[in-house]
Amino acid sequence: MPIGPDFDAKDRVKQATSIVDLVSRTINLRRQGPNYVGLCPWHDDKRPSFTVNPVRQRFSCFVCDLHGDVFDFTMKMESVDFRGALEILAQAAGIVLKQHGPKTEPGNPDHKPTLFEAMKWVEEQYHQCLLHSNEAIPVREYLQDRGITQESIDKFRVGFAPLAWSWLVDRCRSTRFTPKILEACGLILMNNRGTWYERFRGRVLFPIRDTQDRPIALGGRVVPGIYGTEDEPKGKYYNSTETRLFTKSDNLYGLNIALEGLRKADDKSLTIVEGYTDVIAAHQAGVTNVVAALGTALNERHIRLIKRFADSITLVLDGDDAGQRRTSEVLDLFVTSDVDLRILTLPEGMDPFDLCMKQGGEAFQKMIEGAPDAISHRIRTETKGVDLLNQTHAATKALNNILKTLAGIPASEIAASAAKQLRQQQLIGRLSRQFQIDSEHISRRLNEIRNSLRPRNYDADADSKNMVPAKIQTVDFSSFVGKERELLQLLILQPALLDTAVEKVSPDQFVAGPLKAIYQIMDDFFHDEREVDHDSLMLEVQDPVLRNVIARLYDEAASKNELESGDSTSFALDMNQQFDSVLAAFEDEVIANDHRAKVSQLQQKALDKEEELAALEELLNQTKQRHGL
Ligand SMILES: [Zn+2]
Asked: Where is the Toprim domain (predicted)?
């Protein structure tokens, strides 16, 4: 295994990143002895169970059974693979990574950092245009009329694209951003005469930023009266197409700004509205945890994104029927994820923008707090207009629909949580009263429906290659063979022992898949004359499951080491003794296997007389040896 070209860079990134600082950006940590502790972001934590060890530069959650370093934390938090985590941390640390392949040189339309820089430049051009150009006067008036303040315009970097067909292309000529780069950002198109034209011309623009606060796309809205003699374009709202930087389902408008408050808040809740201006109005009115989906219905990717930052969501709907229908689809999604969902249905004809502008943020906040949870909302909409006691057919249908939603929560999840059991009982009791049906009967029906549902594959749509499943699959440690686990721990703590180990134990002697894979990597390292300590392993191995196993082996071994090593020389002695006995265990197994093979050959009488005698003699000798005779 050759040393990767980035090995050095990975090491520098790791050195430059403090795990305490990194984790603190997401979780409130407090000091506890030599460590820091906080609530784990990946399970419903009350304890806290999440520990950060600043000396070892690692984190662990013993409930999730997750262990790792700055790369693992970033991989899981940002839903990226190892390379993605390396890029994020390198950028934060100001370390330049070598790019793979010739296609991604800076200045190339495939080079993501160049696209990020271009988007930043574009955002600024359009923003300045809105602030200062004469052509934007009607737009400034329009925004002012609607009540959007200068402060909001600055905060959200609102912009304007003039009507000229080539405004942006003309400007980019004096920069290093070519039209091809702007095209890759989804900003300009080429017509059939071979000239570039602007996608967003004549629109007020709402830049969309990612969770790292980088502009990645634009949303545009028609401004009435701008188009002069031209027809107003169809479609009031217009989003960037998907690009290398932007996918609709992996981003939410305003999340970059909402995160500032959300990261510090105890109450991690997000409110989702429909439009850009709804978000701006809410923030302006002081309700800052508000975001909008980007021209697409809420889906599993959004939920995965939201779960990284919030544990409860309020979905705000206009009072129309289309909104109601969409909700029931969304609802089924949320029921299976453990995000708490509330549904706020606004009075007919009202949207969050008007509400915030006319009645203020407090009124909006109050409505959000009073919103019914999703199941209650479901019961309410399913039973609306149905006479539950007399319209038997309609009532049965409504009950079945409600139970189908409830059945989406897997039985295993309910069994594991007392709160969820209680909640289910309450809901069944409530349905029983409302429908006048025995609660036993409802429970039974719920179980029937639940059993008929196939388990959902939560990550089935993770199609982007940078996506790794949000839930890192973990390995059952108790299933590992003791001696295999011990040997690896010894080698991680004392790499000098590898010399002997490689000679005596081959990777094929390992039973457990992940341990075997790790030992194989150590073996490769050894033959390449590379160091095999824990740090170099963690810089080389990228598979999240293997990383978790290595980290956990190390954590366990290092804790034992710290506990027992009052006197380090005696510990080293212990370690050598332990090493000898582990090697002996491997050797014993080889002999025992051989023994078994011989016995089975004897039993099958597969040997001729002479061989039989020789085999018997050998078995006898082995047995004597084993008993020290
Ligand atoms: Zn956890």
From this structure: 268-349
